[in-house]
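Data deposition worksheet. Section B asks for the primary sequence of the deposited chain exactly as it was used as input, without tags or linkers unless they were present during the calculation. Section C holds the resulting structure in token form. Section D is free text for depositor observations; keep each observation to a single sentence. Incomplete worksheets are returned to the depositor.
Section A, Depositor: J.P.
Section B:
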Amino acid sequence: MADPAVLKQLRESLKGLETGGFRRRPALPFGIPAIDSRLADEGLRLDALHEVAAGTSDMADDCAATLFLAGIAARAWGPVLWVVRRRDLFAPGLAQSGLDPKRLIYAEAKDDAELLAVMEEGLRHRGLGAVIGEAKRADMTATRRLQLAAEGGRTIALLMKRAAREGSDPIAMPSAAVTRWRVTCAPSTPLPVAGVGRPRWKLALARQKGGEGFETIVEACDATGRCALPPVMADRKAVAGGTAPRRAA
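Section C:
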């Protein structure tokens, strides 16, 4: 019989060849224990669909949700496909959240149905680090197709849900997404002098499979795509004996 250690090493070598030398992580952590510890997968599952919506119809919240998506994609591996309905993405803004424009592939869809189809095709390609789309209507069937397309790969699927009509809740409709988030602007970091400090967001996990929802305040993504706990919150946890570094590792 072959040595079990040799067989194990062979399996690991074959696995590396099958994935192009990459070892697929099961999840993409935020690097903030206060958030990762409350997620069922200790991060965002890479082979899954995640939905994000602005907390209100205000343009500032819409931008915050967009930058939140950019930060997640920035921390994923490889090229990123971003499918849009309108040409309103601002590349320098995405870069400030860590997403290098050189990694981006843009696709423009004529309607939500075409957008979801392009996303599905991108997920099945297996050569992308993230696939992002922005849609008003994506029912259970459509989101289930995206979830199935993502499963078994290492391409995270990110769907930004926009309100179908004024005052409606973008993530009220049933969905197959593993996590569903709302992002709302919060008062920026105070400065000792006149000016505007680092932006802050209220992240609300409205739903997750295998866990409970929660809300927290974070400082917006930096140039590496990482959020951070505000200093007061981080200091409070440190005093209480917890481990909550201000910036993600």
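Section D:
The first strand starts at residue 27 and ends at 28.
The chain has one domain: 32-239.
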